[in-house]
Predict the 3D structure of the following.
Amino acid sequence: MAVVSKGNTPLIVDLKSATLTLVAVVLKTTDLAALAHELGERFGASADFFNQDPVVIDLTPVQGDPKAIPFNHLIALLRQHSMVPVAVKGGSPAQMAAAQAVGLFEAPDGPSAKVPVRVETVVQEVIREVEVIREVPVQVPGPSVPTMVIDKPLRSGQQVYAKGGDLVVLAAVNNGAEIIADGHIHVYAPLRGKAIAGARGNTDARIFTTCLEPELISIAGIYRTSETALSPDVLGKPAQIRLEGDKLVMEPIKLN
């Protein structure tokens, strides 16, 4: 779209076509109380995980649910976790009408849909989509980010986030502590708290530790808690965790 100036009046804005890749929040329930609990459990302590990311609400899994969705409450809930809902897709006609009534616009349906935006913009983002949000990486060039190194023990309630890079911890990660990295996580000490690698969708990210005793481990949105017992060949021993499809694979590391 070209805008032509009139007379000698200079243009102060230039409108160009562009595409913005949005975070996809895949709604698998219309029970907002259950959704609030899930988001709180998984991201409540991660204040920087979503940084005012624009999101599209995918209603495909609940398209046949007759229960009305209170979109105003859903939008408020997502905003509590620093997400900014702007669009909706995949719903029934009634659901789409209700969503548009509160200001959400209809996004193109489909797994690779991109939302047109009438403004020139540079997007350095990833599409995330896990159970409520399942993450899919998009390769975007950008400046290199140095590895973050922590050389002091992390106590319960402490959180460290290596945004855009790897995290190396040279001391114990105690119960109740949380370490997050967009890349790999290396812990050269006991890992007893929560470790979240590939936080923004990097499925190639891995977690390494010299003593695996975690409360929770997660890579690219696929997670496992201490409620599921670890195999004796990795519990309390040097190990690495990687993704194989949608499955977390834990393997012992031989240090000798």
User: Anything to note?
Assistant: The first helix runs from residue 32 to 43.
